Amino acid sequence: MITIHLRYEIDPEKLEEFTQYGREWIRLVNRLGGTHHGYFMPSEGDSDEAFALFTFPSMAEYEAYRIASRTDPECVAAFQFARDTQCIRRYERRFQTPVFD
């Protein structure tokens, strides 16, 4: 099992747009074989930092998702929404192995 941890630097003036983007990706990751654990939005502290966590059964299944997301019309539209709204300034991706028990 592999968990992907995303750290986003977002535009705090476009929190609504980023929230819309996040809700769409939760649905898309789940539809494409992953388990999305949610987006974690700014509250107190930094106003321009958000996080997301999602898990795939294996790195191979994550790679299959990545390949599929490049041509899936809904994924392409979600990527374009982020570009159009410029709600994301940059992001970092980390791969982690979860321990649940």
What does this structure look like?
The chain is of the alpha+beta class. It is built from three helices and four strands. The chain has a four-stranded antiparallel β-sheet. It is globular and about 35 Å long.
Give a summary of the structure in a few sentences.
With 101 residues, the chain is α+β, with helices and mostly antiparallel strands. 41% of the residues lie in helices and 32% in strands.
Task: Describe the secondary-structure layout.
Elements: E1 2-10, H1 15-31, E2 35-40, E3 49-56, H2 59-69, H3 73-85, E4 88-96
Antiparallel strand pairs: 1-3, 1-4, 2-3
Helix pairs in contact: 1-3
Structural class: alpha+beta
- The proportion of residues forming helix, as a percent range, comes to 40-55%
> How would you spell out the order of helices and strands?
EHEEHHE
Strand content: 25-35%
- The residue ranges in which pLDDT falls below 50 over 5 or more consecutive positions are none
Radius of gyration: 14 Å
List the total number of helices: 3
Strand order of the largest sheet: 2-3-1-4
Task: Give the biggest beta sheet.
Answer: 4 strands, antiparallel
- What is the number of E strands? 4
Structural shape: globular
Q: Whole-Å distance between the termini?
A: 14 Å
Average residue pLDDT: 95
